[in-house]
Amino acid sequence: MRVGTEETRLVVLRGNSASGKSSIAADIREKFGRGLALVGQDNLRRIVLRERDRPGAANIGLIDLTARYALDAGFHVVMEGILYADRYGDMLAQLRADHRGPTHGYYLDVPFEETVARHATKPIADDVSEAQLRDWYRSCDLLPGGVETVIGADSTLDTTVDRIMLDTGLAGLPAVDR
After folding, report:
1. How far apart are CA 87 and CA 129, in angstroms?
2. Which tens digit of pLDDT belongs to each residue from 84-134?
3. N or C: which end of the chain has fewer CB within 10 A?
4. CATH code at 25?
5. What is the pTM of this model?
């Protein structure tokens, strides 16, 4: 089932915990303005459903449905989350195939030691241990087919946001007054 329009942009940001996905997504939205929906895995999985991340879990469908709804309503979508390739890959591949407009995927490749350091600055730092981070961590968990641009830990937040805005064409599009 086709989704969105030729003008809607779908941006998928993936990577390990504390790799910068949420910060990048928030800055893209701030720079773009209205007309861009954020579809966050953590929000839908942990807040809306209060569900653990497991194969075949309900959040996979909810993430897909939310992105599709926003695209069909004319919003550009930035989807962000760990989104493990083995659990979310089929959904992401189908969404990419169904989206009428450009789809861009980015994988934030941050070494484990750096994710631990970044995690220590987050509000949930006391709730999630280093051992849990290690259990969650997957090195270079890329989707098949070379559909993602890998961005390393050496890329600053501003550099990464500017790159994604330019790559996707969002930098040249007007915000929508909604």
Report:
1. 23
2. 999 999 999 999 999 999 999 999 999 988 887 777 777 676 777 888 888
3. N
4. 3.40.50.300
5. 0.93
**What is the DSSP code (8-state) at residue 101?**
S
**36, β-bridge pairs:** 76
68: left (phi over 0), alpha (psi -120 to 50) or beta: alpha
Residue type, 93: A
Query: How far apart, in whole angstroms, are the C-alpha atoms of residue 21 and residue 16?
Result: 9
Quote the number of domains for the chain: 1
How many helical (H) and strand (E) elements, i.e. helices and strands, does the chain have? Answer: 7, 5
Rg value, the chain, Cα: 16
Residues in the chain: 178
Eight-state DSSP code of residue 171: G
Please measure the distance between the N-terminal and C-terminal CA atoms of the chain and give it in whole angstroms: 26
